[in-house]
Automatic annotation (TrEMBL):
This is Methylase. Keywords: Methyltransferase, Transferase. The lineage of its organism: Bacteria, Bacillati, Bacillota, Bacilli, Bacillales. Gene3D superfamilies: Vaccinia Virus protein VP39. One of its GO terms (molecular function) is methyltransferase activity. GO terms for biological process: methylation. Pfam families: Methyltransf_11. Residues 50-145 form the Methyltransferase type domain. SUPFAM superfamilies: S-adenosyl-L-methionine-dependent methyltransferases. PANTHER family: METHYLTRANSFERASE, RHODANESE DOMAIN-CONTAINING PROTEIN.
Length: 264
């Protein structure tokens, strides 16, 4: 049983400690999904958009020149402060920063024309509460765009993948599979319109250091990968040389939904 308060405290500690690293992270700041989300959503100049778990503020910055207002929320105040600084330097305007929990948003029903959440939902202890809140604050006909790392449908591989993520980042809760996300969205009146499923290749040393607290932790993660079964290594497409992990891959799912009815 996941203890929500403990998880959220771990998230605040993790992202508060590494806020600037997430702002500067090239995988977060330069992903082609930032351009793609604009192409898919076709944001309008009169929209009010909610960006949940804004992190380094990259989505908020990307959308801010296309809409009337972006409300960027995050559970972690230092993360919001770092995002605000970076976006001011980039001269991004029309962004309001609000500290908020994705599973209990402080906004009225049907307040937003669109909602986004990018590479964050695997930190949420109650994904259904999150999706329920997205549906609640989204206007009928509004867009919801989710991007996150996802687990495979194979339960053994999914458990292994999440174990590695948890070793690397104690604030990680669980990557759901795309089919699990679809089920939650269907239950809350969010109908998929477009999707992209891809794999992302990471240099292991850089990936593990972004959330590391010690060399011992980094070694623990690497040892777990080196001891993986052939099936697990194949799934992660691991490249190993001289007993060291060089690269591996993670699945990512991007989906655009429309709210077609009220939450039930």
């Amino acid at each position: 049983m996941v203890k929500k308060d403990e998880v959220k405290k771990a998230v605040q500690e993790q992202f508060g400690r590494n806020a600037e690293q997430y702002v500067q992270s090239q995988s977060h700041a330069k992903g082609d999904d930032l351009d793609l989300l604009v192409d898919w959503m076709q944001p309008q100049s009169n929209w009010t958009v909610l960006d949940i778990a804004t992190g380094g503020g990259h989505v908020a910055r990307k959308l801010s020149s296309h809409v009337e207002l972006v409300v960027a929320t995050d559970l972690t105040r230092p993360m919001l402060e770092a995002a605000s600084r970076a976006n001011r330097i980039a001269e991004a305007e029309h962004i309001l920063y609000v500290q908020a929990d994705a599973e209990g948003l402080p906004f009225l029903d049907e307040s937003f024309d669109a909602v986004t959440c990018r590479i964050a939902a695997h930190h949420f202890p109650d994904p259904e509460a999150f999706i329920g809140e997205v549906s609640r604050v989204l206007r009928p006909g509004g867009n919801f765009l989710l991007i996150d790392n996802v687990a495979p449908d194979d339960s053994d591989l999914a458990e292994f993948m999440n174990q590695i993520e948890k070793l690397r980042d104690p604030s990680h809760v669980r990557c759901l599979s795309a089919s699990e996300w679809r089920s939650l969205m269907d239950r809350h009146g969010l109908v998929g319109r477009m999707q992209r499923h891809r794999t992302k290749k990471f240099g292991f040393p850089q990936w593990v250091k972004r959330t590391s607290e010690s060399e011992q932790q980094e070694q623990t993660v690497e040892n777990a990968l080196l001891l993986a079964t052939d099936k697990q290594k194949d799934y992660l497409d691991m490249k190993i040389e001289n007993g060291r992990v060089l690269t591996h891959q993670i699945e990512e799912w991007m989906v655009l939904c429309t709210k077609t009815r009220g939450d039930q």
